[in-house]
Amino acid sequence: MNSPSVNMTAEFSHQLIHWQQQHGRHDLPWQNNRDPYRVWLSEIMLQQTQVSTVIPYYRRFLQRFPDVAHLAIATQDDVLQNWSGLGYYSRARNLHAAAQRILCDFNGRFPEDQTSLMTLPGIGRSTAAAILAFCFAQRAAILDGNVKRVLTRQFGISGYTGERQVETTLWRLAEKLLPEKQVSTYTQALMDLGALVCTRHRPQCNACPVAQSCVAKQTHQVAGLPTPKPKRVVPEQSRYLVSYLCEDKVYLTQRPATGIWAKLWCLPDYAAPLNLELECVKLFGVPPQERRENRPFRHTLTHRHLDITPVWVKLSAHYPSPDGQWVTQEQALTMGIPVPVRKILQMAQN
Questions:
Q1: Contacts for 309 with CB less than 8 Å, ≥ 6 apart
Q2: How far is Cα 216 from Cα 157, in angstroms, rounded to an integer?
Q3: Hey, which residues are catalytic here?
Q4: What is the rounded distance in angstroms from the CA atom of residue 168 to the CA atom of residue 29?
Q5: How many C-beta neighbours within 10 Å does residue 158 have?
Q6: Burial 244-272 (b: 16+ CB within 10 A, else e)
Q7: What pLDDT is stored for residue 303 in this prediction?
Q8: Helix locations, the chain, DSSP H
Q9: Which of 186, 226, 234, 319 could form a disulfide with 152 if both were Cys (CB 3.0 to 4.6 A apart)?
Q10: Phi/psi at 82 (5° precision)
Q11: Terminal Cα-to-Cα distance of the chain (whole angstroms)
C-alpha cells in the first residue's frame, strides 16, 4: 500500500466532513454535547453492540447513574442489574471501576490526555481518542470496527485486521488522515460511513463520498475486504441450569468474581446431569416434589457455545441456604442476571 499524499489526505477528510454534515447521524442521544461521561458511556456500550440495541439501555443507565459520581458510589450489583441483558459484562465492571478511579484519582473530572485516559479500566486507545475528539476537540485518531472496514477498503489493505502488522498500518493511516480542524465532525463521519454506507454486507458504494478513490471498489474487492478472521473451532459445552422453585420464589446464587457471568446472579449451574434427590436434600434439607426438564437451547459466548438444558424443580419447603438467596421471579428479572437465566425465568412465567 502506498502512503496517501498530503493532497489525498486533505481531500479524504474534506469529503467525509462535508458528507457527514449533510447525510450523517445528528440525533443520537449521546450526540450534540461535550460531556465526557456521556460520550464514554456510549463508546463502551457500542463495543460489540448495535446502536439500536444500545439506545434504550443508554437512556435507562443515564437515568439511574446521571454522572460519573453517581456511578462511582453505586454498588457493583446495582451497575450489573442496569446492564443486565446487554452482554459482555466485563464492560460494566470496568465502567464501575473506572468511575471510582476518576472520582478518587482525578477529583471526579475526566483526564484530558490520552495517556491518563488509557490508565482507566476498559479504556483503550480508540475509546480514549473518541473522548478527546468529541469532548475536548483534540486531534486523536480512532480505529474501531467500522473505521477498520472503511480504511481497508479505501486503501486496499489485505490481511486480518487483528494481526499486529495490519493493525499498525491502519493506525498509521488513521493518524495521517486526521484533519487539522473539525476533528469531531470527521471522527463522527468515519463512524457514520462505516455504519450507514460502507457496511459489512451490501455496502452502498453509490452513496459513498469517497468511492472514486476507493481501491477495493476499483479492483472489485469490496466483498473480500476486510479479510475475514481466520476460522477456528469454537468449543461446545453442555450445562444444566436448575430453577429451584418454592411457592412463588426461585433460588439464585452469585457467580464468582472471575469467569463467565462474573458477579452476576444465576441459577445453580451444573456441567452434567445430577442426582436431584441428593442435591435438594444437601442444599435445602428436603427432597424434590416435582421436576421438569426442557429441550436444550444454544447460547453463544465470545469463545464458546453453551448448550443449556433448563430444569425446573419444585420444592414443598426449604431450609435457608447460606450460599444464595430466594427471591420472587419478578424480583429476579430486575437483578443483574445473564441472558440465558432471564430466558429460563421468562419460560417459567409463561
A1: 238, 239, 240, 241, 293, 294, 295, 296
A2: 9
A3: 43
A4: 32
A5: 13
A6: bbbeebbbbebbeeeebbebbbbbbbbee
A7: 85
A8: 6-23, 36-45, 51-64, 68-73, 76-83, 90-105, 114-117, 125-136, 145-155, 164-176, 183-192, 215-218, 276-284, 329-332, 339-349
A9: 226
A10: -80, -10
A11: 58
**Biggest CA-to-CA distance, the chain:** 78
* Triad 303, 308, 310: Cα angle to 5°: 155
* 282 exposure class (CB count in 10 Å sphere: 0-12, 13-18, 19+): exposed
Q: Are 118 and 101 in contact (CB under 8 A)?
A: no
Roughly what angle, to the nearest 10 degrees, separates helices 76-83 and 51-64?
150
For the question of whether the overall pTM of this predicted structure is more than 0.70, the answer is yes
- The number of beta carbons lying within 10 Å of the beta carbon of residue 74 is 18
Taking each helix axis as running N to C, give the angle between helix 145-155 and helix 183-192, from 0 to 180 degrees, rounded to the nearest 10: 80
Report the C-alpha gap between 78 and 23 in whole angstroms: 39
pLDDT tens-digit profile of 151-179?
999 999 999 999 999 999 999 999 999 99
The pLDDT value recorded for residue 219 is: 95
Residue-level length of the chain = 350
The answer, yes or no, to whether the previous bond of 273 is cis (omega within 30 of 0) is: no
The secondary structure of residue 85, as a DSSP letter, is T
Tens digits of per-residue pLDDT, 65-117?
999 999 999 999 999 999 998 989 999 999 999 999 999 999 999 999 999 99
Residue 342 is placed in which grid cell?
432471564
